[in-house]
Amino acid sequence: MTILDTLFAEARNGAANLTELIRGRGLRLGVTGLSRSGKTVFITALTRQLALLGKTGKNALPAFRVAEEGRVLSGRLEPQPDDNVPRFAYEDHLAALTGPDRHWPESTRQISQLRLRLDFQRREGFLGGGASMTIDIIDYPGEWLLDLPLLQKTYAEWSRETFDASAGAARASLASDWRGFSATLNPDGPENEQIARRAAEKFTAYLRASRADSYALSTLPPGRFLMPGDLEGSPALTFAPLPVAEGYVGPPGSLGAMMERRYEAYKTFVVKPFFENHFARLDRQIVLVDALAALNSGAEAVRDLQRGLNDVLAAFRIGNNSWFNTLFRPRIDKILIAATKADHLHHLSHDRLELILRQLAARSIARAEDYGAQVDVIALAAVRATREAAIKYGRDTLDAIVGTPLAGESLDGHRFDGTTEAAVFPGQLPADPRLAFRGETLAMPEHMADVRFLRFRPPQTPPGAPPGQIRLDRACQFLFGDWMS
Amino acid sequence: MSDAGNHRPERQRPRAFRLDQLDENMVVAPQADYYQTEAVKTPVVEEPAERATEEAQRKGFFPGGWSWGGVLLSALGALASIAFGLWLDSLVETLFAKSKALGLLGLGLAGLVLVAIAVLIGREISVLFRQQAIARLHRALALAHETDDGALARQRVSELVSLYADKPEMDAAVRRLRELKGEIIDGAARVEIAEKALMPGLDSAARREIARASRAVSMVTAIAPRAIIDVIFVAAQALRLIRKISEIYGGRPGMLGAFRLARAVAAHLTLTSAMAIGDSLLQQIVGHGVASRISSKLGEGVLNGLLTARIGLSAMAVCRPMPFIAQKPPGVSDVAPFLFGGDKSEKNGQPEKPASRT
Question: Model-level pTM greater than 0.80?
Answer without folding.
Answer: no
